[in-house]
Each structure stands twice: as C-alpha cells, then as structure tokens.
Amino acid sequence: MNKQLFDSGWEYHEYGFMPLEMAALVPWQPVNLPHDACIAKPRNANNPSGSGEGFVSGGVVYYKKIISFTDELVGKHILLEFEGVCGIAEVILNKDLIATHHYAYTGFIVDLTTKLQPGENTIIIIVNDSAKPSARWYQGTGMYRHVWLHTGEKVHVKPWDLQVSTPEVSAELAIVDASVKITNAEDRDVEATAVFKLYYGSDQVAEGTAKVTLAQSEEKTADTLIPVDHPKLWSTDVPNLYKMICEVSVGGEVVDTMQSNMGIRSISFDPKNGFSLNGVSMKLKGGSVHHDHGPLGAASYDRAEERKAELLKASGFNAVRLAHNPFSPAFLDACDRLGLLVIDEAFDVWRVGMSANDYHLWFEKDWQEDLASMILRDYNHPSVIMWCVGNEIMERDGQSEGYAWAKKLIQYARELDSTRPVSLAVCGLMEDVAINMAMGNLGANLAGNGVDPDNDRWGDRTEEFLEDADVVGYNYLNSRYEYDAIRFPNRIIVGTESYPHTQYDNWISTMNNPNVAGDFVWTAIDYLGEVGIGRVEIDKEAGFLGASYPWFYANVGDMDVCGFKRPQSYFRDIMWGNRNKPYIGVLPPELYGKQINHLPWGWEPVENHWSYPEYEGKPTSVNVYSDADEVELVINGISQGRKPAGAAVKLKTSFDVVYSGGRIEAIAYTGGVESEREILKTTGAPVAIRLTVDRENIKAEYGELAYITAEVVDGNGDLVSYAENDIYFNVSGTGDLIALGSGNPVTEESFSANHRQLFKGKALAVIRSNGCAGEITVEATTDGLTAARCFIHTI
C-alpha cells in the first residue's frame, strides 16, 4: 500500500473530557506530530503520578484533523496506522467511535475504507491519560509517535504483512524465506502472483515467485524460499542491509508493492556457547534503556531515536534491551543500520499490576493483539534477536495462574515467530523484596541474597514459570549464574539488569559462565521518572526507591538524559577494552570524610576535573580507573605514590591527596613501562560560551533535529565544570528551539523554556527544522561571558 506520513496539520486542546459537541466549541491549537502534551506542563509534588512518573500531571487531550475523501480515493482501501498513543485512545470519525486502544507502546491500525464520506471527514483522537499513576516511569501523554495513511487497491498487502527471515546462512549461500499475506477485498475470487525481489544497494541480487488463489474477502499467505549466493552478512561490525521488494499482481497488472529492509544473519543461543551471531560466539555488551528522550519527553522524532542508538554504539554497547515495552520503528531502523542487537520487550505487567492504573487493567483483554503488534511489526529487523514477553512479572511465583500464563504467552509468541527465542526477565521473589525494603536493604534481595542449596526458594518457586522460556533474563541475580548452570543445565541466561556500581563483578561473572550470554546494565542512559533511585546521600541513609519532589530523573545510567557520559561510562570503556588511557575521578573536597551512601544503582560522586578554587590545601580522594598493572598519581610534579591497578583492584585505584590547583596526572604502567597517562589542569575563570552542533546540515523537513551542546569555557577553551550560569538561547530562521535541558536531576526548570541553569558546565539544546530550506541561527548568552553563535543549514 502507498504509505504517507500523516503527522502535520493536526489541532489539539486540553480542556478535560467532554461531549464532542462541547469539544467543538473550545479553542483548538495547531500541532504537528510527534507530540508529548505532558513534558511542557509544570510538575507538582501533589500530582498523583508520584515519584514513579516524576510528579507530572496527566490529563485528557483531544486531537483533530480533516481527511478529504477525494475522487482519487474512491474504490481504494484506506488505513490509518498509529505507531503509539500514550493514554487510552478513542478514534472518532465524523462523531462515530470506530476504534479504541489501551497500550501506550504498541502500534495499531484502523480501517477507514467503508467509513469515509464524500468530501471532508473529521477525525478526532481522544487520549485519556488522566488516571494516575499509570506506570513505574515517565510515559508521556498524547500522540507521541508517527501516524501514517495507507492507501491501496482492493487486492493489497497491509502493513506488517511482508515477512522475511534467513533460516540458512553461510558465507557461500543463504536462503531467504519470504512470505506475504495478501488481502482480497474484491467481490470475486482472484489469483494473485507475488514476486519477491532482493536488492543490495541498487543491484538486484535474487528473486522468487509465489502464487495464491484468494476467495472473496479472504487473506492468504504466499511464500517462497530464495537462494542468495555469497551473501553480505549483517553483523554488529558490518551491518549490511538488503531491501526486499514484493510486487503483487492480478491478471498481469501490479496492484500493490510492499518493501522492507532486512539483513542476512544467523543467531543462536545455547548453554555452552551463550549467544552466537553468524556462527561466532560473542558476549552481549548490553544496556537497558527507557523510551523517553530526556528534554524531549516521549516525543519520538526519528533523529532522537537515531541519536540514542548512536550514543549507545559510540559507548561500546553492542546490544540494547528495550525496557519494558516496544519502541518506535525508527529506533529499530537505527539499530539495523548501526549494528546494535536488540531484546524487544512486550510487557512489564500481566494481570497483576505494578501501579493502580497501569496496563494490568487491560492485559487479559488485549495481550494477544499487543504481542502480535510488536512481533509482526518488528519481524524483519535483523537487529532483533529475542522477544521478551514479560519483565519482573508479579505472577512469577505462580500466583494468579502465573505459570499457565507464562506458557500461554511464550507459545503465542512462537506461533507468530519461530525464528527467534522467547524470554522472560525475572528478579527476586516479591515477598523477599518487600522484607528487604522494610529493612532498608532493597539491593540485597533484588540480587537474590546468594544461593542456599538446601532451601532454594527462588529456584523452586520460579522453575515452572520459566521452564518454557528459551532464554531467561536475570535481573540482579548474577550470584546465581554458576549455581544455576548445575541446577538448570539447559538454561540459557542473560543478565537483563545489573547494578552499575558492581559492573566489574557483573562482567567477570558473565565472562566466566558460558551459560550467560551477556550483561545489560540498568541503565545505559538516564531517564525521566523512578526518580532518584541512583541518588547519592551525604551523611544519611539512601532510603527507599523514590526520592521527593522536585527530583525528576532516575539519576542512573552510563550517560545522563542529555547523552553526556558519566564516570561509570568511562569505567566501562576501560573494562571493555575501548579506552587505554586512565580516567581520573576526583571526589569534590567538600565531601571528603563524609559518609556517602547510595542505592546500588548509584555511583560514587566523582568528577573529571581539578578545579576547586575554594578548597586549596584541603584533603580529598582521587579514583583512577585503569586496566594497567600500576598507576602513579602526580600533582604539580610531585608523586603521590604508585599503586596496583587493573584486575587486582577491580580497575579502581584510590589515593588520598591534598588539593592543590594546577595539574594532576595519572600515569599507567604495564610491565613496568609507562603505557598511557591522563592529565587534568585547573581551569581559569569562565570567559565564554562554546556551542557544538552535532549536525551543521539537516534536511529541510519538519521534525529534523539538530542537537547543540553548550559549555562554559575558560581562556584556553577548557570546560569550566563548576560553572552554573543561566544560559539563554535565541533561535531564528528556518527552525525552532523545542527543548533545553541539562543533566541536573533535581530542578523545577521547564524543558520548554529558552533558558536553563548549566549543570557541570553544560546544557543541551534541541533545534527542530520548520520544513523550509534556509539557515537556522542559534545564539547563546549569559551575563558576563562572551556569547556564542552557530548556524545550521536546512537543505
């Protein structure tokens, strides 16, 4: 079917739920999609969303658009595809309710063919996100992903109905299994021919044909096996992509064309080799991520999705887990292009809820539709290596028929796709988690509290729940890896969540146990909601999960919500062998000697700079991350000693020192010889703003984004990390400032304002093209410093 973006020309309002006749009388505002109606609203400590969703407000949002039923559409089949709507969605056409959808993260398709009237038709989408809390993290509100209009002939192929897989793969020959479901809306029987053409770049490399006879109103699948000589394999290092084009003909005339990118690759899991890609065993270096985009909220711009994948790839990750729901197609497209392996996850709850108004209210009615939506939509992505049908499901101990439901979901996923494994992700038993929360020891029991072979309650209670899963995700259960290789010798494990603070131990246990396919840290990128689970408390206990208002971020992740790397990310670079230079993490002198506490999702509050002008002569400590044999710390030419580094100290060497402005050096030694060194210098006074844009040229299409990093620098151009200036942005030309944020997790500042207080000397601005060709001028100012200007070309 012809596919047309349907994002522009909408109107919306937020005046609460009302009859359509009343809704027509209130003022509407123009809006283009994607749109998160929640992110710009003021937060409030009393909002019922609570700490889980970041104290945001919900609400009811009405969207409206005119669909013109022109002569060109007469006799056509017409569908609307919604990639995702956050809230209970009601689709109304000309005052008639024609569809509803309850799950925020799955796409759904609405057939308009017999419902459109000649002339103008009014479509209204009511998005009800007023019942809070509705999740354990920030979701957003509204039509936050793309909408597409599909039009085709009466014999046509619907979205998601072209499927390709590669059951046989070698360097010499691959077999592509191509199938297409053809729909016949004619009032007669037809014989349809499907021709599958495989392209690499502009060259056609293979072809196959299949024929089917379809009765009136019948859907039938045509499939064939297509050999490909000397295929170019898709891998994490070389993500070769092919394009499959399927032409459907009736009576010798092409009536529909459908196409999809694909990759030729093989995947396998087994308890002796873990995960293998194209026959080569490899460990999954993974990170879990949520769907939001920090300052943009949930709004799913294609460039935001692509940038997230780029950040992960650049930080050494070869795999990503989509927690805990399907992401946008644009993110998976980016993973295909970049070579990121994906665990595609469907649900965080089944029949028993985690929040009062979450998906458990709809699960029993909608689970099949939503699971099918994820698997059928994402089937062709070579990056997707596994389906997960549930994360930390409350029924994991058998309550509420949990064992039977696990079997039911796994079996249905296999019916939809027999080419990939199906998994479940589990943590400790909920009763143990509750006990330890009451004792202030949450992390211990999420991690399983070790293994007691004489009373393995966790193993006993979850065995039947997990017995049908092809792969089992362990959340904070790496203490069980070795034991479970014996107790469950056929079980394949993936560490689907692990604490950042114990990442060295997590990785060593992953490497030492062949039954473990990989490790996924919680998280790779910080996110909105679940506020403060990675917070640091000084001279008091860290407490329970949620922090109080005005916290907004979880404050976890190798990168903050803007994508700026944090100290644990550099530690991971060294641990994975992606960085040879040591990394210097300085404890701010004001914290020296104080009790520093955090939950296991946190990290010690060290900083990568040597600029503390008010603490000259005061003691502090310095951590050096290094995989060398030894490290030496030198301050202003004076050695502070030479100590063991590398595996002997789990890559972290500590020095107690006295702060003295100037120069600090960490020198790494391997085999007694200097191998690398890292140098930090005390910065001068702040002098100017520096702007760095990720892309100076972007398409002149609405929704194209450019990201600008703003930094305060001294006279030498070095970042002044302690700068906390208020920075102001002025944007003119063919684009707009749509978000301005920082890594500060505790603030009441709006992402929609044109000013922001710097955090650790930085802020991030997001600029959106307005769709016109030309130039965008961006100027940043702050009192007392030299302003900065940059230009973005929209072409």
Give a structural overview.
This protein is mainly beta. It has 11 helices and 47 strands. An 8-stranded parallel barrel has the order 22-23-24-25-26-27-28-29, surrounded by 4 helices. It has a 6-stranded antiparallel beta sheet with strand order 3-2-4-9-6-7, with no helix packed on it. Helix 10 (503-512) links the parallel strand 28 and strand 29. The chain is globular and about 90 Å long. The protein starts with a strand and ends with a strand.
Secondary structure elements and their pairing?
Blueprint: E1 2-5, E2 10-13, H1 20-23, E3 29-31, E4 59-69, E5 77-82, E6 88-93, E7 96-101, E8 108-111, E9 119-129, E10 147-152, E11 155-156, E12 162-169, E13 173-184, E14 190-200, E15 203-214, E16 219-229, E17 242-250, E18 253-262, E19 267-270, E20 274-277, E21 280-282, E22 284-289, H2 302-314, E23 319-322, H3 329-338, E24 341-345, H4 363-378, E25 384-391, H5 402-416, E26 422-426, H6 430-438, H7 442-446, H8 457-466, E27 471-475, H9 481-487, E28 493-498, H10 503-512, E29 516-522, E30 536-538, H11 567-575, E31 583-586, E32 596-598, E33 619-625, E34 630-635, E35 638-644, E36 652-658, E37 663-670, E38 673-681, E39 688-693, E40 697-698, E41 705-713, E42 726-733, E43 735-741, E44 755-757, E45 762-769, E46 774-781, E47 788-794
